[in-house]
Structure formats: C-alpha cells, structure tokens
Specification:
alpha+beta, six-stranded antiparallel barrel, 6 helices, SH3 type barrels, 337 residues, Elongation Factor Tu (Ef-tu), domain 3, 28% strand, 3 domains, Rossmann fold, four-stranded mixed β-sheet, 22% helix
Amino acid sequence: MSGGVDSTVAAALLLEQGHDVVGGTLRLVDHPPGIEAPDPRAAAAALGIPFHCWDLRAEFERLVVSPFAAAYAAARTPNPCVLCNARVKFGLLLDKAREVGAAALATGHYADLVRSPGRAPRLFRGADRRKDQSYFLFAIARAALPSLWFPLGGLTKDGVRARARARGLAAAERAESQEICFVPGDDYAGFLARRSPAGAFVPGPIVDTAGRRLGAHRGLAGYTVGQRRGLDVAVGHPLYVIRLDAARNEVVVGADSDLWRRDLVAACVNWLADEPGEEFRATVRIRSRHEPAPATLAPVGGGAWQVLFDEPQRAITPGQAAVFYDGEVVLGGGWIQ
C-alpha cells in the first residue's frame, strides 16, 4: 500500500470480496523536508486492516538506485520502475508477505492476471489503455505469478476514483505523482550530479552523423535518444539526439529521419510464457506509451533476441525495455542493447 487511491481501492475491493487483507508498505527512500508523501498507515486504518512497514532502503539502493546511476554513466537511459517491480515489489515484498502468513500479494497496478483451469496464470494488459502498466511488469519472475493479484486490471482510473469516492476514502482526490520516487522534483540530472559530482557530467562534443563538431554537451547523462530541446546548436533545421557514444563521450545528432529504425536486440530476456524455440511473430513495445508494433523475433544466443519491426519505429533507446505481446498477453521482454 502506498496510501494512494489505487492501492487503497485494491485493498477495499479485496475486503468486499471476503478476503482477509493485511496492508504492507516498504520504506525505500527518505523524503526531503517539505515533501508530502501519501500515508499508507492512515489508509490501512481507514479500511480497518492490520498494517506492516518494512525498511528496505539499503536493498533498494543496491538493487535499483545504483543500477540506475550506473546506466546513465554508461550512456544508457534506464527504467528503474521495471527493476523495482521485479526485484523489490514482486521479489522482496512478496517474501515479506509470505513471512506474515499471506497467501498472495495484491497491488494497485493497472494490469490483469488471467487464471484458467490447467494452465499457469497469464499477464494481460490493463483495461484502461491510458494507465496500462503491463510494460513495467515484464521482468517479474514467472514463478511469482501464481502468488499475485491485480484487482484493478479490469477497471479504469476514473472508475477507481469513483469507487474511492463512493466509499468515502480520503485517497479519492489525491493527485498522482509521475516522478521517479527517489529523485526529488524529477530532477534526475541534479540527482546524478550530487551522487557523483566528478563523473556524472563530463563535457564533450556534439557531432552530426558525419562526425562534424557542432557544439558542446554538458555530459551524456543529460541527454536521451529523440531529445530535441536543450541542445543549444543552431544549424537552420531541427536536430535530435540520434545516439550517445560513451567511448567517444559524444552526443550524435541528426534529422528526425535518422531516428527511425526497424531493428533492435533485446538482452537478458525474461519470459512470462513458454519461451519460443525459434523465430516467431509478436507485437513489441519500446516505451511505456508506445503502441505495440508488429515484428518478427528471432533468438541470437545468450538469452538475447533480435526484433525486426514490420515498419520503422522512432527513437529506439538503449537501456529501455522491449516488451513482447501476443494480443493482450505479455509474453516477456528484455533490455534494448
């Protein structure tokens, strides 16, 4: 439980279905002074359920924050929410749930788990396309799926807020945070600079695709593929970040047409369905807001898969996730190399 509307309504729905519900939250970061955080303990009290809080700040630093910083240092654009879900929320928190005797772990994610007789649970996209969070869940261990529940999978965000209002829950009108939870004010550049003042931002050249120097950058961590604003380079036409070259400490820029690619390689693929033994067809998302695009996938060894899209996709970004779907079902996914 975060104290927000989603997890609070998820708990309320489970109570009304007759389940014995216990609230739990993780202390992962220290909120700066003046930052008002949701109160999961108060949300649990309003529902009349027991509550536990586990301090996992050290584990969160090791499993999520340090890899986040290391990815930026390697000129990649990481997705810490995927790591947090796989390693912390549906890893360590599931362990804590079992320690207090819980048979399952439920969260307020907008995704769905479909259980059918005689087969393993399958992860589906959430019914609310604007809120669907299945992209962020691909790296969960398949063995954990039978122990998970997503009560909001068939609901919309508006429907969840309406249910909260109908139940008189204080979380009904709480605004959503779109920020990375451990980066105050969503200032990830400032966070990285404070964390590693000497190495986070090393200035270097901005070059075009032919290698011609056009200007200077303030450090690779301040840029991502597809970025247009903040380049401070004037050539008479729009320029976009095409790639980040860590070996040369260069930001490579070009036209929008240079951003479109048909292929990628995804490594460290995690399967939530049976792993195909050969080439197969699927749809693939390369960002959380990217509509899955048709592609052919083929194994390339070492747990990596090549994705060849039917049509070019814009701004394929190393460090982000490529998630594979069969219609509504999440098959698995990996990290774009």
